[in-house]
Amino acid sequence: MDSGSEIHIEWRGGFVLNVVVMWIVGLIALLVGILLVVSGNHLIAGCVLLAWTVVDSVVSSVRRRKIHAEFRERFPTSDDVALSLDREKIRRLRDDEGKVQAVRQVRRDVPGTPLVEAANLVDKL
Q: Is 110 helix (H, G, I), strand (E, B) or coil?
């Protein structure tokens, strides 16, 4: 297994754990909100759910930035991504099955590739 795959596996494990923890905390916040509504504390329930929404948005934003930074560390330019691809295979896939399938293949071959970048790469090939 090459080092790129190992990095992807390590990142994926941390990503899954993060998602599970955030999902559990979100479920707890929802249950607390429901209990507060049932007990008549509508304003506090609204504040709890609003706070959860803000926290979830911030965590998601930080996670996306971290993923993008790790990807850019491995592939500083689009040309670096293109060099790691089987360009003939991607061209053939684009011509035979369409751009969507070719973009999907780019993202499978180079995990973490942003959708816009994968689409631009397919167009350039």
A: coil
